[in-house]
Amino acid sequence: MSLVSNNGLSADSKIIVSVPATSANLGPGFDLWGLAFKLRNEFVGKPVATRQGSVVKHVVRYEPQVKDTADEKALQQMPLDDRNLFSKAYLSIFEKRRLNPVAIDVEIIVRIPMERGLGSSSTAILAGMVMANEIIRRNQGQPFTMEEIFEMACTVEGHPDNIAPALWGGWILSLYNSSIQKFLAFPLKLRAPVKIAGIVPHLTLSTDTARESLPTSFSRFDMIQQSGCTALMTHLLEKENWSEAERKTFHLALRDRIHQTARAQFIPGMNETFEAWRKMGCLGAFLSGAGTCLLGFWPKEQNIPFSRLGDAMFAAGVGSRPIELEVDNLGLTVDVT
After folding, report:
1. In which domain, by residue range, is 276 found?
2. Distance between CA atoms of 117 and 318, rounded to whole angstroms?
3. Same domain membership, residue 161 and residue 34
4. pLDDT band at 1 (very low <50, low <70, confident <90, very high)
5. Are residues 54 and 160 in the same domain?
6. Phi and psi of 181, rounded to 5°?
7. H-run or E-run covering 272
8. What is the pLDDT of residues 109-120, one digit of tens each?
9. What's the pLDDT tens digit per position in 259-273?
């Protein structure tokens, strides 16, 4: 994560917060870990004089890699006042410091697909909190530390798996320590000879709907298998070189018994897509976050057949577009101009 110097804000100052896309779960790591990518939403804020009505006023600029009607529909439904995630997060920081909120005009530059399991909600929560925190810091107030921002953002989001990599970049494992009632984050090293690519379906799915479908209890066997897959995946992704046996075993590490099977009902052609990718050379595939984005780990040296990645889903009646994602190790950045 990158922060700017501690100079005061001028009347013409703009605060720019850039937050990366993230993928959570990665198969067996349900609510446990996430990975950041070099695909970013930006939030450009300009403090203004106190005004009546909404403290935060928004303008949205849609700058996707490829235009998507599902994104456009989601953007049309997004409230552009104090009811949206950015605004709630922004206002919460002033409230926690018992300060009057500073009115602000915000331009949101949307590049991350919405409601597709790539962490768009985490970008809004973190950007709102960090922008408010930066205003407090530059007005000689008492800002929160990034660890405190992390804790508050996890509480709003409900789970840390997207928040941690969005804030700090890379692949991060997060746990809730109930004895001290805090979320803890532990960076991991993705050294494996792989790259990540998949498809973005023209289909959205809210996290709430996806979570409501999950079982409420699991067998001992399921938990043993889940723990084993999580450990195996950590072991393999942290290795720079794989034996042929490890390469052939990797797909087993992505097996999940908590969320993917339950969520398949919302994503036509998911299992067929994963099977088709294996035949194309994919080492292992997974549902990104709550979905609907499907991603896979591919050999670093392979030429991925992008034009064919969405065929199985198209046969199930849903269109998609291919995407390749590079790991981002920088995390959230803040700049003031």
Report:
1. 194-325
2. 17
3. yes
4. low
5. yes
6. 55, 50
7. helix 270-280
8. 999 998 899 999
9. 999 999 999 999 999
Question: Are 284 and 304 in the same domain?
Answer: yes
Helices 85-96 + 120-138 axis angle, to 10: 40
pLDDT tens track for 207-244? 888 888 898 899 999 999 999 999 999 999 999 999 99
Lowest mean pLDDT among 11-25, 51-65, 134-148, 201-215: 51-65
Task: Let me know whether 126 and 147 are in one domain.
Answer: yes
**CATH number of the structural domain spanning residue 37:** 3.30.230.10
Instruction: Decide: 253 and 223 in contact? Cβ < 8 Å.
Output: no
Give yes or no: residues 96 and 124 share one domain.
Answer: yes
Share of the chain above pLDDT 90, in %: 75
Query: Which of 259-270 are b and which e, b meaning 16 or more Cβ less than 10 Å from the residue's Cβ?
Result: bbebbbebbbbb
Closest CA to 129 of 171, 173, 163: 163
β-pair partners for 176: 183
